[in-house]
Structure formats: structure tokens, C-alpha cells
Amino acid sequence: MNASAAVAAAVVPAAGRGERLGPGAPKALRELGGVPLLVHAVRALARSRAVGLVVVAAPADGVAEVVALLDSHGLDDKDIRVVAGGATRQDSVRLGLAAIPDDVGIVLVHDAARPLVPVEVVDAVAAAVRAGAPAVVPAVPLADTVKRVEPNPGGAEPVLDTPERATLRAVQTPQGFDRATLVEVHAKALAEEAAGGADAPSVTDDAGLVERYGGTVVVVPGHEEAFKVTRPLDLVLAEAVLARRRAADAY
Ligand code: CTP
Ligand code: MG
Fold it and tell me: Could you tell me if the CB of 25 is within 6 A of ligand 1?
């Protein structure tokens, strides 16, 4: 692969603990079909001709381990860099962004925890940024009705209202950005935090930062197989999806 303005670089935040998945190795290193989630995710990105470079933000104490892991899965011949991630996902993305060469104009951010994203989604997001959108997120309609509540964990929670389901989307990754836009909103968020703006609402995705600072974000179709492995049941589903793919490939 070859990093240049024409192709995108991908940042893969992989420094989380995976607390909701339960005890065990950091989530990105947990296995799916005998292969770490991170390796699946990096392969999914590397498969896209739109992606020229992948920067992995590894657990800060696990950089050498992640380098060795990628090597051992045959990813050493690609343009892949590993940096130390941070305390939050936002920190990890910012640290990954800092490792991207200046001439790269498009950045995709993809969770290590979404190992099965189809290459078509990666391509579609990159194409939408290339076509001029400063921020692009893949998303799918919701199956469940959603209610907004007054949070009271473990107890009864008063319902505030019910957004109309047809207007809601569950967003996935890779999210794609004009590089300058993404760098700018991450810098602004960091400055706001340093200035004590801890009461700013927490943002769980990069497009959310673009929205916070007034940028335009568009949604393109995501894919049900781009789901995030968050809880133990997600790993069961991921194993089933992988088994189905492997069976299909055998024919
Ligand atoms: N992530 C990261 N650095 C952090 C926290 C999260 O790079 N300090 C990454 C995770 O590795 C994951 C992605 O962000 O690939 C999405 O986060 P999430 O699904 O919340 O993963 P974890 O934070 O690992 O899981 P949990 O919240 O259950 O601990
Ligand atoms: Mg988390």
C-alpha cells in the first residue's frame, strides 16, 4: 500500500479494555474464529483499495505485543503502524491521527471492535468523502423502538419521550472524514477539556465531534455485519457470521 492524498488512511482505536465483554484480554486481542478481533478489523480495512495506510492505537502497555501479533498474521507487508492509545477512545483516535503523514487527505476511523465490516462499507464511506462530504457515517435503521428516559440505573426510569423510529439510525464505523476537519475538531475538544469544559456532553463517536462544532455529517448505508462486539452475546453472533462466511467460501 502507498499513502498519498488520493488514498485514505485508517485509524483503528484498539486500546479499550472491553469491560462489558467480561474478564479476559483487552477486547481487541480477544479471538473470533481463532484470530484476534483487531486482526479481522485491520484485514477488513486493508482489503479496501481506498485505504493506503492503517494506524492502530494499541493499549499503551501492549504496543510491542500488537506489532508482533500483526506480523504473525501476515500483516507485516502492508503499510501498518502501531502507536500507543490513550485513556479514552477520543484520546486513542487523536493519538492515531498524529501518526498520519501530512499528505493524506482522507481519514477513516474504524473500531477494532467491529471485526466483520464488509469491504463495501469501507469503500462507500471513503467514496462519499472523496465526493466532497467532510464527515460520513455508515448507519442502519433501528429494529427496536427507542425511548428517552430520566436515567436511574437499576430502578424504574421515567420516560421523557419516544423519538419517531423512522428518523433514527444506529451508526457504525468506519466513519470517514476530510482529514483537516477531523484534526480540527479533535484539537478543539482537547482544548475544551484542558479549559475545564468537562461538562460538555460526552461524545462517543468522531462524527459527534464534528456535529458539536457545527460541521455537516451525512449518513450512508451501513451493514448489519458491521455491528460492534460489545457484550458476550455479540461474540456468539460474530462467530456465527464468520462460520457462515467460511462455509460460503468453501463452495
Ligand atoms: N478504545 C480505544 N481506547 C480507549 C477506549 C476504547 O482505542 N481508551 C477503542 C476500543 O478498543 C474499541 C473502540 O474504541 O475498538 C470502541 O470502544 P468500545 O466498544 O467501548 O470498546 P471498549 O472501551 O474496549 O469496551 P468497554 O467500553 O466495554 O470497556
Ligand atoms: Mg468503551
Answer: no
